[in-house]
Amino acid sequence: MRLRDLADLPDLQLQPVVTPEHFDPTIRWVVTTDMLDPSRYLSGGELVLTGLMWRSGPEDSRTFVRAVSKAGIAALAASDGGVVPDDLVDACREYGLPLFRVPADIAFATVTESVVRQLSTARASDLSLVLDRHRRLVASAGPGGGLGPLLDMVSSDLGMRCWVVTSSGRVLAGSEDPPDTGYLAHEFMTSVRMPRYSQGQRVSIFAVDGEVTPRVVDWFVAFESDWQTWDAPRISLAEQLASIVAVERSRADDRLSGSGILAQEFVRSIVGGATATDILAQMHVIGLDIETRYAAVAVATSGETVRLGELRPLLREVLAPLEITVGVVDDEAFALVEAPTDRTDSIRRAVQALAPGLIGSGTSIGVSAPTAPADIRSAIEEARYARRLAERRGSDCSVVGHDELATLTILLANVPDDVRRMFTSRLLAPLVEYDDQHNSDLVETLSVYLDTNGAWTRCAEQLHMHVNSVRYRIQRIEELTGRDLSRLEDRIEFYLALRLR
């Protein structure tokens, strides 16, 4: 039963109060509640009836609507003696939740009975169609068939084009002339609810494995139509298609395949210290070309958005469509990819496209320089150092390439946190404290002074100050720290302390 059908039931006389544009979900059941937060008892798609017993003040309306919206209900029907308070109307508009007013002379039991009767009738008539389509879907997705025949059948059955797309916007299968899949991928990763209708592309998006898999590594099915106008059999067919594509997606994970196991052991042996001779011998076994150059890519996460088990598909999406060799060691995943030239820029672009799905993930990625097969172990180590430097930046996702690595930077990236804090505090704490108390910029002055190699005029120009003012500040720094900035040793220690902050 569609939401638009609710207002057409003559015996109920429900009056639409909030009607979000282009939102016509399917009603799957009816629930009556007077709890302020009934979300634990909701599974999505319900018409929720409430007599507003939970409302003790205007602020409760927003709490209630936020809870039921998060649970994914289809609509809200409310009445307190035939009245719907303005604060409830405002909250429903804020969350885009359809709201109906129940007339004072209509009992909630009457609404429930009428809607359930409509649902039962629709389900009985739809059952044979759903079962028939399910049999055809399974037959189309037989062994070795791939996604192409399956989507051809669905496209013909529904009378609309459809596509299977990854989180970065890559089209895996589907009709010709796809829409702007990069735009759809962004909507897929940022939408609160699924399915979603993209007004910009006039396409409906269904997540393939949305209940289990983070969207940044999931796939979606795009249909050239507004799902909110579909009948129940059509929605059921789309959901079945998404479920079958989810099975195909799981087949793409080669962790338990023979090649996947060999790749895992190959990467583990490199990280464990395999010799160049051993590496070349293993490359022969797993079929890697020993006449080309390779780059290593390391990735790890510190947040909850992307878990350890999802690093492999994340790497595959970042490096797609290239063939890669992937392995996970401890809390890091590593990939080897053919790299006749530097891959860093292309990886940064791919990560930028996936950025909306990496919010809160604390993803850090390191990329090595292209190297000969005999030097792959060094490439892995370089990628690990780069990744640790990326992790220090503390952003949702950071990529560090080999071009950002210098010998000193590599050393600093591996300094333990307790040593880092002790060293920087010993040298810089007096300056930080002085700046806080006097609203001065001694730390910045020191940094610019060292970056300009102690050149008074250049330092003054960068700070937009007179040279005498710079001299005074440097003298004050020396007095507070007991150091002499004319000595190379003291300059180096200050330089290190500023880099370790």
Write structural notes for this entry.
This protein is an alpha/beta fold and 501 residues long. The protein folds into four domains: 3-116, HprK N-terminal domain-like (Udp-n-acetylmuramoylalanyl-d-glutamate--2,6- Diaminopimelate Ligase, Chain: A, domain 1), CATH 3.40.1390.20; 142-251, 2-Layer Sandwich (Beta-Lactamase), CATH 3.30.450.30; 258-413, 2-Layer Sandwich (Alpha-Beta Plaits); 417-500, Arc Repressor Mutant, subunit A (Orthogonal Bundle), CATH 1.10.10. The chain has 18 helices and 15 strands. The chain has helices spanning 3-6, 58-70, 86-95, 108-140, 147-158, 181-190, 232-251, 258-271, 276-286, 311-319, 344-354, 376-392, 407-413, 417-438, 442-451, 456-463, 467-481, 488-500; strands at 15-18, 29-32, 46-50, 75-78, 99-101, 162-166, 171-174, 196-198, 203-207, 219-223, 294-300, 324-329, 332-338, 363-367, 397-401. The strands form three sheets. A five-stranded mixed beta sheet has the order 1-5-4-3-2. Helix 2 (58-70) runs parallel beside helix 3 (86-95), helix 15 packs across helix 16 and helix 15 crosses helix 17 (467-481). The radius of gyration is 30 Å and the shape is flat. The chain starts with a helix and ends with a helix. Mean pLDDT is 86; it is low at 123-128. Residues 6-119 form the Purine catabolism PurC-like domain. It comes from Rhodococcus navarretei. Residues 274-389 form the CdaR GGDEF-like domain.
